Amino acid sequence: MGTWGEAYLTRLRGCAGRLERELADISDRDRAVRLVEDDARLVEKGFADGLLSVEAASRVRTLDPLQADAWLVEGEPARPRWELLSQLAAYVELLRGGYPEPVVRFATSESELGLDLAAVDDDGRVLLLGVARAEPLELAKLEALVPTFEDEGAGFTVTVPGHDARELARQLWATRAPYLWLVAAGTRRLHRVQYGRTIRLTPVAELPEPEDLWPFGVLGPTPRIALVEPVAG
Questions:
Q1: What is the per-residue pLDDT across 26-70, written as a single tens digit (0 to 9) for each?
Q2: In this model, does residue 199 exceed pLDDT 80?
Q3: What local confidence, expressed as pLDDT, does residue 60 receive?
Q4: Which residues contact 211 (CB under 8 A, 6 or more apart)?
Q5: Do 209 and 154 meet the contact criterion of CB atoms below 8 Å apart?
Q6: Is 126 helix (H, G, I), strand (E, B) or coil?
Q7: In angstroms, rounded to a whole number, what is the distance separating the alpha carbons of residues 82 and 100?
Q8: Whole-number Å distance between alpha carbons of 32 and 29
Q9: How confident is the model at residue 13 (pLDDT cuts 50, 70, 90)?
Q10: Which of 25, 45, 141, 190 sees the fewest Cβ atoms within 10 Å?
């Protein structure tokens, strides 16, 4: 583990201290698999550049004013939320890559489908849906299982925000996002999404350029996530 990883651990220890708790032991596996130097570097630079901040001891804030609560550490002793490291790194990556600040949504509320990350147009339509997990193996499971779920049409309800393949399939059906970006420690996997009876995921090499997603720019304030009306069968 390098300098940036150590800096991120120092941040986590500070959060735990402000909660008057000890930080849980960081295992060798955590250091080798979950605490990736490139992700830690992006996150720490995000804090340095003012894209991220910490308030209320452990609660992290992005520039998304509609963001739901997200905590760097939780529990007793305080345990790192490792999936948040890759989620924050991906958020910073999008902003540093030129994606417009007002339309990059982070940790949306349950009323907005509980999305980890989304890039949307002025009307709230999701153009890029981001999903964060702690480890790359979890992404492989999503890729394998999401295409097995059929469209449930008007009958589906979104209940638990983004933790399994079925929920991700529901989020995709509800938003009809054309791109799915799966992120985990040191890993990024982009897919073009096609919708039929089931969902088809086709790997894509590079994120779309901002000017391709917003050819006429961004006109308004941060938009709320819009749902696509189900098509009657």
A1: 999 999 999 999 999 999 999 999 999 999 889 999 999 999 999
A2: yes
A3: 97
A4: none
A5: no
A6: strand
A7: 26
A8: 5
A9: very high
A10: 25
